[in-house]
Design goal:
It is built from 12 helices and 12 strands. It has 401 residues and is α+β, with helices and mostly antiparallel strands. It starts with a helix and ends with a helix.
Length: 401
């Protein structure tokens, strides 16, 4: 029997029992579709987080006060901070040739008011280096000027959304607003930047770091952001930061330096494991589909006993009958997998319309894996019905017993 004959036989058998065929196709399509969609959600989450951290800039290092590891002894078990990070600590890092930009950060919330309009918003204190480091863009005016970071001028830069809420369509450059108990002159307005690792850059006020420290009455820095000169300089910059701060803090190793690559690699591993986990959960539905195929094919064997008996009476060997039934299972599995891919593509398209900021996309491996598992499942669960059909007695089969 030729391959085309096997395919034609399987096709006629499938179309001869439309209800049975539809059930099998639907089960396989749902299984494949769920695998692809859940894999796409995991991949989308991974891309979203990586994109958020990449939006911070490139070749970044983040210096945090305190050690990240735990220590022994009685609670609290987290490492303490013998000394705060200061502006002087941040500026001392300029001596390293591996570092391009240094942006000390001070963050807090304060009421911002102007002409009777007031709202609580995030105040970000930094220096001129924050502009290239965070890849910011100006809609009007200029960013914080370079100069002595310990000298706090009464100037500020508004986020795009905040400017619209306080000034509307009126120009904001040169105007003053009150932040807490201080007045600041507006020198610039940022372009729309959107969310970046939980901080809405369109809804903030940027002031000199010394002004922020005076505003919040806190001489300590929240963190220091650093950009290395290139990718190869990241490790040299990290070692320089640890060495310089340790020297300034009387030999105390009391900071944590996080590199952007390390953060991205960690999230990449986490979301890769998450994607595989949800894909594995979805693959259970393929096993359920395979069980349904087996049950339906067992019923099909009882419905087609005379057909099988005729084949055996004509001398068809048992292994050929097994091949015919397995071919039918394989064809139905592949068609069901194709329908599942179509369903998954439609679901992903709809979700991308509902959540345009979420970069949902199905990884190529999930497509191949879903189709491969579907075919494997169809063949595995089709073996029992096929072997049962091959063992039928031709005389009893022809007599429909």
């Amino acid at each position: 029997m030729k391959l085309i004959d096997i395919i034609r036989f399987a096709g006629k058998a499938a179309t001869g029992y439309p209800t049975r065929t539809v059930l099998m196709l639907l089960a396989m399509a749902i299984g494949v579709g769920s695998v692809v969609v859940l894999s796409a959600l995991g991949e989308g989450a991974r891309r979203y987080v990586i994109g958020e951290f990449s939006a911070l800039g490139t070749n970044l290092l983040i210096v945090l006060p305190g050690r990240s590891e735990t220590v022994g002894g009685a609670p609290p078990l987290l490492g303490i901070t013998p000394r705060d990070l200061t502006i002087a600590d941040a500026m001392a890092l300029r001596t390293s040739s591996a570092i391009r930009y240094i942006a000390p950060i001070s963050v807090g919330a304060a009421p911002v008011s102007r002409a009777g309009r007031e709202r609580e918003t995030t105040i970000l204190g930094s220096t001129a280096d924050l502009y290239p480091l965070r890849q910011l863009e100006m809609a009007a005016g200029r960013f914080l000027p370079p100069g002595d970071p310990e000298r706090g001028e009464a100037i500020c830069v508004l986020g795009h959304t905040l400017k619209e809420e306080l000034f509307g369509s009126a120009p904001a450059l040169g105007e003053t607003l009150r932040i807490g108990d201080y007045r600041y002159r507006i020198i610039g307005v940022l372009s729309e930047k959107g969310q970046s690792v939980g901080l809405d850059m369109s809804d903030i006020v940027v002031v000199p770091v010394a002004s922020a420290q005076a505003l919040f009455n806190n001489p300590a820095l929240f963190r220091v952001m650093i950009e290395a000169r290139d990718r190869d300089a990241i490790e040299r910059a990290r070692k320089a930061v640890v060495r310089i701060i340790k020297e300034r803090h009387d030999g105390e190793d009391d900071i944590t330096v996080i590199t952007q690559d390390a953060v991205l690699a960690t999230f990449d591993r986490i979301f890769a494991a998450l994607t595989l986990t949800v894909a594995g959960i979805a693959a259970i539905s393929l096993a359920v589909a395979g069980i349904l195929i087996m049950n339906v094919m067992l019923i099909a064997v009882s419905q087609r006993t005379s057909e099988v008996g005729l084949l055996k009476a004509l001398g068809t060997p048992g292994r050929r009958i097994v091949t015919l039934f397995l071919a039918e299972s394989a064809i139905l599995s592949l068609i069901g997998a194709a329908l599942g891919l179509v369903i998954a593509a439609l679901a992903i398209w709809v979700m991308s319309l509902i959540f345009p900021q979420f970069p949902i996309a199905a990884p190529l491996w999930s497509l191949a894996a879903a189709v491969g598992v579907a075919l494997f499942t169809g063949l595995v669960f089709g073996v029992l019905p096929a072997r049962r059909a091959a063992r039928l007695d031709p005389v009893l089969s022809l007599s429909r017993r």
